Amino acid sequence: MTAVSSAVQAPPSVPQVLERCRELVRPALTRAVGRLHPWVGEMAGYSLGWCEVGGAPVAAPGGKGVRQALAVLGAEAAGAPGRAGVPAAVAVELVHTFSLLHDDIMDGDPTRRRRPTVWKAYGTGPAVLAGDALFALAVETLATAPDGPATVRLLSTALADLVRGQADDLLFATRPWTGPQRVRPAEYRTMAEHKTGALLGCAAALGAALGGAPEPTVTALDRAGRHLGVAFQLTDDVLGIWGDPAVTGKPVHGDLRERKRTFPVLSALDSPAGGRLAALLEAGRTEAASLLIEEAGGRTAALAEARLHTAAARTALAGVPLAPGAAGELRSLLDFLVRRDL
């Protein structure tokens, strides 16, 4: 008798998971944007990486679609088909794009993803209008989905936190490098959870809610996403100082040049080298500052903190019953996003 062996199919890679989720969400996202005024819709398409100024389509649309994937996987983790999370994915992607439009204006950033930002390409007023339209469209998308009122409440909570985080981030730039009024690492963690983590947590929680998950599961997924957001931001902080410009699309030492209060900087300022570092930062000596931050342990502290938040996200996921396949893909996504290009 001949033994027949069946090959065990390898789990999908994270890029494959992201692609699957984007393909599932894209038709609904396209329909939603298509309901906007044509000019506003063009700006939305440009900001989403779908087209150039003037509307010419882009051959290879950009963007990983992380928030879309979290919403789809949230629904699947609740035992529902991924399509149940599509309204959540659309709404959160629209809110994320809205927040980037306004964030670029507030920060005066001229480029994003190696292209002019919307306010540089179309003007400040039109960019504000496009952001407002995307926000309104996100609320409409959720309000007309099953369990609309409950999911809109989840989204509004995340939006309130996002605004709070953005306000803190803007105010940080006005505070001194040293002294009792300096920004502390603990304050930064709270800001990152609000500004970056709230929407990631909301994406997974909304998907789970639309998938019929019980409240403890929705809460756990929100908590996991918030920890992921802090870890994601800490990784960005490291890349913003030491990342390869060819990979990140940002100039070397860009965050130092912009005088951003990022976690590696704040951690190093709390070390015995804090006084010397503050003097270098005030003088704009970014090369010397980056070396001193690393010597003072700022880079190591940021990466260690990112690992702590990744572990906390995993603990949150382990604390509730989730569909095994989707739970595994969520855990893989956590590691993928935090380890990128480091």
What does this structure look like?
The chain is mainly alpha-helical. It has two domains: 132 residues, Orthogonal Bundle (Farnesyl Diphosphate Synthase); 175 residues, Farnesyl Diphosphate Synthase, CATH 1.10.600. A two-stranded antiparallel ribbon has the order 1-2.
Strand and helix layout:
Elements: H1 14-34, H2 38-47, H3 66-77, H4 86-107, E1 111-112, E2 115-116, H5 118-122, H6 124-143, H7 148-172, H8 185-210, H9 215-242, H10 245-248, H11 254-257, H12 263-269, H13 274-283, H14 286-295, H15 298-318, H16 324-339
Antiparallel strand pairs: 1-2
Helix pairs in contact: 1-3, 1-4, 2-6, 3-4, 3-8, 3-16, 4-6, 4-7, 4-8, 7-8, 8-9, 9-15, 9-16, 12-15, 15-16
In short:
With 342 residues, the chain is mainly α. 70% of the residues lie in helices and 1% in strands.
Question: Descriptors for this entry?
Answer:
342 residues, mainly alpha, Farnesyl Diphosphate Synthase, 2 domains, two-stranded antiparallel sheet, 2 strands, 1% strand
